[in-house]
Design a protein that fits this description.
alpha/beta
């Protein structure tokens, strides 16, 4: 280290050549919004000089482009990109994301500590700096069958890994408020580090109690009022814009000069198709500026504020002594990325090709037996039937009541009311559990959509206008060892194999993107009106208080904590 520091100091003072100089850049300051044309001198992964002229072994001509600090995605699940961490690296880094803070919650719910270890091993090889928060809630709920259970004894051996930041989103806020001993053990073990929050709709004294546990961030605010209360109580708000959960429009007004140091950006769950069509954090910055947010506040939230909130003290601005994560922009206000330097290396295919790829895990995690149409029977009830109401662009659902047709003691699908069947098929322990109910909002007029991505326990979830198509789609997902399938009658019309834990493809992200286009078109041909039907299916089993969810035990009212 002493030798490196001596080189860095010598290059910074101009006494020795730097390793890399970026010439003719206009450096944007996320501290005061100034923009200065200068060289940027770099030694190894560190910036050693700005506001001067330097010599170096290698030079990059920025051509007058604006240089901003690398973007930091403060909360995401790589699994939701549907590709491995290495393909996520290739997909997202060119959009300026030099640091991603991931929670391997999805793979952990399937494989437990083995899944987290896969991410930790991969994080040591990616070009971007992939950081990990250890999954806090595995399983997320006792009302569903998951593939694993992680207690504090399972997390402690991983806590000191160099890529671990702290404890990931603490979804079990009822457990926090109830002072559950197992919850308290996890919180106590991470009091010296970062603890990520997850507290939708929590407010008042209950929010105070939750924050008293040392929880510092939240990405679940969906209104400006909710976000402002959480800000007033010391939380850093992570504005989220994913493929399903889209909160940017509602939360953009809070990103004002006085609080932009306490607001950051995240995607949570975003797939390669949306990244290709819209972008990643670059898209969020672009949209915020278009809404009238000062560029200083948007770029600060994407870098400095994010780094500060998560204890990453070496990055977030372009200045001597800071990590050389730099994004060169063709268009400043439209956030059009031209080139990315990550850890002092210009990102490109050569850097990606030089990585050591970690072998995939969980290739036989789907253990469910094939199903028949009989698995999707729902007993008829007198009067109205409980129906999950999907809200486009939200993971929060509505509790609807509909009068459905009945025959031979069974409740039936009613296309005139957009009342489709929804089911969760347990896939981890071969229990044979199949929970069934009804859902509205997909608009299917025929066929079915199935997914082995089913938050949070990741059993197989299927929505259909026909039991025959539901069985065909589920059985294709089982045969692929996980994935998405669209069926019409007994014929599979489109599919995407996700064999890595039933969550991720082994193909390049370009291939996944193309297959997602086919799946989206196939779903639309069945009448689906949702822009992201597969992620919407995947979120139906998510327990979001105070609405309905579907589990492998049946339709569940999470407001009353009982099956219905």
């Amino acid at each position: 280290m002493e030798r490196f520091l001596a080189r860095a100091i010598a290059a910074g003072t101009g006494d020795e050549p730097a390793d890399l100089v970026i010439r003719n850049a206009r450096v944007f300051s996320v501290l005061d919004g100034s923009m200065v044309e200068t060289d940027i001198a770099i030694v190894a992964d560190r910036i050693v000089g700005i506001h001067g002229r330097y010599t170096a072994v290698r030079e990059i001509d920025a051509g007058g482009r604006v240089a901003v600090p690398g973007f930091i995605d403060t909360h995401l699940h790589v699994e939701s990109s549907l590709v491995t961490p290495f393909e996520f690296d290739r997909c997202v880094l060119p959009h300026g994301v030099t640091t991603a803070i991931c929670d391997p919650h999805e793979i952990a719910n399937v494989l437990g500590a083995e899944g987290i270890q896969y991410f930790l091993d991969s994080s040591l090889e990616t070009v971007m700096d992939l950081r990990v928060n250890l999954s806090s809630c595995v399983p997320a709920t006792r009302f569903e069958t998951s593939g694993a259970c992680l207690e504090i004894e399972d997390l402690l051996p991983l806590r000191d890994h160099p890529k671990v930041i702290g404890l990931a989103e603490f979804m079990n806020f009822p457990g926090v408020l109830a002072r559950d001993p197992k919850v308290l053990a996890k919180l106590a073990a991470f009091q010296g580090g970062h603890i990520d929050g997850h507290a939708p709709l929590l407010s008042g004294l209950a929010l105070n109690g939750y924050l008293a546990a040392g929880i510092r961030t939240d990405h679940e605010a969906t209104t400006a009022e909710e976000a402002l209360e959480k800000l007033s109580k010391g939380m850093t708000i992570l504005i989220r814009e994913g493929s399903v959960s889209k909160d940017l429009d509602a939360l953009a007004p809070i990103l004002q000069p006085d609080v932009s140091g306490f607001v950051a950006l995240c995607t949570d769950d975003r797939n390669p198709l949306d990244i290709a069509e819209e972008g990643h954090l670059d898209s969020m910055i672009r949209r915020l500026i278009a809404k009238g947010i000062r560029p200083l506040d948007a770029y600060r939230a994407a870098s400095w504020s994010a780094a500060n909130a998560f204890g990453l003290k070496d990055r977030g601005q372009i200045a001597p002594g800071w990590r050389a994560d730099i994004v060169l922009l063709d268009d400043f206000e439209d956030c059009r990325v031209a080139s990315v330097i990550c850890g002092g290396r210009q990102a490109g295919e050569a850097e990606f090709a030089a990585r050591k790829i970690v072998a995939p895990v969980g290739l036989t995690s789907v253990k469910a037996a094939p199903v028949t149409t009989a698995a999707f029977k729902v007993a008829a009830r007198e009067g109205e039937t409980d129906v999950i109401g999907v809200v486009p662009g939200r993971i929060i659902t509505e509790h609807l009541k509909k009068t459905l047709p009945a025959s031979n003691g069974e409740a039936g699908i009613d296309l005139t009311q957009d009342a489709l069947k929804v089911a969760v098929v347990e896939r981890h322990k071969r229990t044979g559990n199949v929970g069934c109910g009804f859902v509205s909002g997909f608009g299917l007029t025929r066929g079915a959509i199935a997914s082995s991505v089913g938050h949070d326990s990741h059993n197989i979830c299927v929505v259909g206008a026909s039991e025959t198509a539901m069985a065909a789609a589920v059985n294709r997902v089982i045969a692929m060892n996980g994935g998405f399938a669209v069926a019409d009658g007994d014929e599979v019309k489109a599919e995407l194999a996700l064999p890595l834990a039933g969550l991720m493809s082994l193909e390049p992200f370009e291939t996944v993107r193309e297959q997602l286009e086919h799946l989206r078109a196939a779903a639309k041909a069945l009448g689906c009106v949702l822009p992201e039907p597969f992620l919407q299916v995947a979120f139906l089993p998510l327990p979001v208080i105070p609405h309905l969810k579907i589990t492998d035990f049946g339709l569940f009212d999470v407001n009353r904590f009982e099956l219905i």
